[in-house]
Design goal:
The complex is a heterodimer of chains A (about 80) and B (about 450).
Chain A: E1 27-30, E2 35-40, E3 47-54, E4 65-69, E5 73-76
Antiparallel strand pairs in A: 1-2, 1-5, 2-3, 3-4
Chain B: H1 13-16, E1 17-18, E2 23-24, H2 27-30, H3 32-43, E3 48-52, E4 61-67, E5 70-76, E6 83-87, E7 102-104, E8 107-109, E9 116-118, E10 123-125, E11 149-153, E12 156-160, H4 168-172, H5 176-182, E13 193-195, E14 200-204, H6 209-214, H7 222-225, H8 227-232, E15 254-260, E16 267-273, H9 289-305, E17 321-323, E18 327-329, E19 334-339, E20 345-349, E21 352-354, H10 359-372, H11 378-393, E22 404-405, E23 423-425, H12 431-445
Antiparallel strand pairs in B: 1-2, 2-22, 3-12, 4-5, 4-7, 5-6, 8-9, 9-10, 11-12, 13-21, 14-20, 15-16, 15-23, 16-17, 17-18, 18-19, 19-20
Helix pairs in contact in B: 3-12
Classes of the chains: A mainly beta (about 80), B alpha+beta (about 450).
């Protein structure tokens, strides 16, 4: 079941998605407000490899590759 | 500069281990402080066997191995396909970042706090890096700890933690051709083998030196220890030619010796071939003729390849050998003996096989290996019974006053121009063990590799 986490408290670790089975190509919303595409999933439940599609705070990051930790991944969009 | 280690009773190690007289004090097998010194002086410096490249064929493939007591990850980088060997320990708080024996991965993520490392060892993911670390930590300084040197020697992978260790070929010295030979397929081709999966692992209640220092070069134990399986004739030829636990091999002009390299510590029971050329094949798989058919063909190919060349002394019927400190090598089995406490050894078995052999051959060899070797193998069950009782029987106060006797063949070593680096003795002697203990003393007393290599020739 997809859950949404709190966007105010970065230390809130309870409301996180289960990342293990999210397939490549899925779009996710991050705590920063950015939208990213999953480019690879190491299936460790902790991280996703992502590429930014939208980044409201820093548009220069669009197209950049990064890693997203589970507490920063709020929802599948 | 490390001080000479002291044993109980404040004696130097050279009075506990007297190689010249063939006497070895029992406490070197049971003394905790000597064991801890071994981990520092030997296992943190020597070249150690890790695995084989066939165990990590694809980008992102990994397997977990051991260097001494410590666990390491052999991984093939997912981008440039280079091999790396890392200590299996997160740089944050030490948790293992890999808790599987083998597999394929994009990253190694620590299950404690989520630090994540790429397959080249770089730290690439740190949770709360901006919020909690304020972006200040230099991730480039906190990657997985990599070995100082690694060598891919014809597919076999070796490593050392010590940047000052000599090259691998210098380290193994006269055994380099034999190591290469053992990792050839039966037709004589380099890089022609793969290892059966999984690696067989089990623990035995004995000090690593009981098996590690005696396995290769203890010909005297076979008649008594393995009496029952010799009579049971567990070899593939059954009771033909009187039966044996080993496959039959054609006789060729050669001489068998027990051999020890007193300068480098390696040794075993090996063969000097008096004439060039590979052995002709002798049918031995009585119940599986397809296996003989395969090996007949590969033997012919090897004879063509080795026409005009002498076979190396070890492997493929020449006999197995120990590369100091703790791995026994032969063409059909690799036996690392990992220290796991002063009175515990973790034994590993890796079984090479021709990678292009048909299934019927691989199945036959796999079953033979399991019947012969490993935790359920009949030969090793015999051996374990000895080692597992030698250790506790040597722990007592009275027992430790009595040295072990390593006098077999003492004073009868000789040399041969075909293998000049080695001290050779009758095929049943304890020359290999004396050579190992000689090098053991060198390592235990050395302040660094500056004291160990180039070797100071022993008279």
């Amino acid at each position: 079941m997809v859950q949404e986490g709190s966007s105010e408290d970065v230390s809130n670790v309870n409301d996180t998605l289960a990342l293990q089975d999210i397939p490549e190509g899925t779009k996710v919303r991050l705590r920063s407000g950015a939208i990213a595409e999953v480019t690879a999933n190491p299936r460790d439940g902790g991280w996703l490899f992502i590429r930014f599609i939208e980044h409201p705070d820093d548009p220069s990051k669009v197209g950049e590759d990064d890693m997203a930790f589970c507490t920063d991944v709020l929802a599948i969009v | 500069m490390a001080s000479t280690n002291q044993s109980r009773g404040d004696r130097s190690l050279r009075s506990v281990v007297d190689v010249g007289s063939g006497l070895v004090g029992r406490e070197v097998y049971v003394n905790e402080s000597i064991y801890q010194q071994e981990l520092e002086q030997i296992f943190a410096r020597a070249w150690l066997f890790i695995g084989h490249e066939s165990q990590v064929p694809n980008p992102g493939d990994f397997m977990v191995s051991r260097m001494g007591e410590e666990e390491v990850i052999l991984v093939r980088d997912r981008r440039d396909k280079q091999l790396h060997i890392f200590l299996n320990s997160c740089r944050h708080k030490g948790m293992k970042v890999c808790r599987y024996d083998d597999g394929n991965t994009l990253v190694f993520t620590c299950p404690f706090h989520g630090w994540s490392y790429d397959t080249d060892g770089r730290l690439v993911g740190v949770p709360y890096y901006d919020a909690a670390y304020h972006g200040e930590m230099d991730k480039s300084k906190w990657g997985l700890h990599e070995v100082a040197q690694m060598c891919n020697y014809y597919g076999s992978i070796w490593a050392t933690w010590d940047p000052k260790a000599p090259s691998f070929e210098d380290y193994v010295g006269a055994y380099a051709p034999s190591i290469r030979h053992c990792f050839q397929s039966t037709d004589g081709e380099d890089n022609g083998i793969e290892l059966f999966n999984p690696v067989v692992k089990w623990r035995i209640p004995t000090n690593w030196k009981f098996p590690g220092f005696s396995f290769a070069g203890d010909a005297a134990h076979g008649a008594m220890t393995h009496r029952s399986i010799n009579v049971a004739a567990i070899g593939p030829q059954g009771s033909m030619e009187g039966g044996s636990r080993a496959p039959m091999r054609a006789d060729v002009p050669s001489r068998k010796f027990s051999a020890g390299d007193f300068d480098l510590g390696h040794g075993g029971q090996n063969t000097i071939y008096d004439e060039p050329g590979a052995r002709p094949y002798m049918d031995t798989w009585q119940t599986i003729p397809e296996v003989d058919e395969y090996f007949r063909k590969t033997a012919e190919a090897k004879q063509k390849k080795y026409a005009g060349q002498h076979l190396p002394p070890g492997g493929h019927g020449g006999g197995h050998f120990c590369i100091f400190p703790n791995v026994i090598i032969d063409h059909w089995r690799i036996l690392p003996w990992h220290p796991h406490g002063v009175g515990v050894t973790e034994s590993w078995r890796m079984y090479p096989v021709d990678k292009n052999a048909p299934k019927v051959v691989k199945d036959a060899l796999r079953r033979y290996a399991m019947r012969y070797c490993g935790p359920t193998g009949m030969t090793e069950s015999d051996d374990m019974e000895n080692w597992n009782y030698c250790h506790p029987a040597s722990m007592g106060t009275i027992a430790q006053r009595l040295p072990y006797n390593f006098e077999m063949g003492l004073g009868h070593g000789q040399t041969d121009e075909q293998w000049p680096e080695m001290t050779l003795n009758y095929r049943i002697s304890e020359e290999p063990a004396r050579a190992r203990f000689s090098r053991w003393l060198d390592f235990m007393e050395a302040g660094s590799w500056d004291d160990l290599y180039p070797v100071k020739k022993k008279s």
